[in-house]
Amino acid sequence: MQQNNEHRTNPDAALQTMMVIWFALLMSQFMLVGFAYFIKPELLDLSDAEPLPAESTLMIAAFAVISISVLAVSLFLRKTFLARSVAEQSVYLVQTAMIVGVALSESVVLFGLLLALVAGYKYFFLFGILGVIGVLIHRPTKKAVLDATYKN
Fold it and tell me: Which residues, at least 6 apart from 144, have a Cβ–Cβ distance to it below 8 Å?
């Protein structure tokens, strides 16, 4: 009888693959912030203390609340996927947790980019910092991969 090895996963190879994907997605966050400065170089001048119109202030506050909510959802989904990965012994769910979390964290950076380009918000990089922190939180760990493969 032939043994079926298709469900066996090398934890080290899986972690290495996830780390490469994670690092590429982390670097894309910096690219987005650089893109905003390339498109609108005047965003670099932070000495201009021009007050924002009331509409922009409301929009910035709304995006800040949405960004924090998105990060909270990303942490909840990460926890859910990691719990499922252990229960189902699927390393692919660890990768899904990382990709979904990083994608949601990247949306925070995109919100900041939108504010920079549409409203001229010069402190959009704060959204970038928040998004990068989210990506750093979603870094794949060896423990998560081993927990998802310990029975195999």
Answer: 82, 85, 94, 97
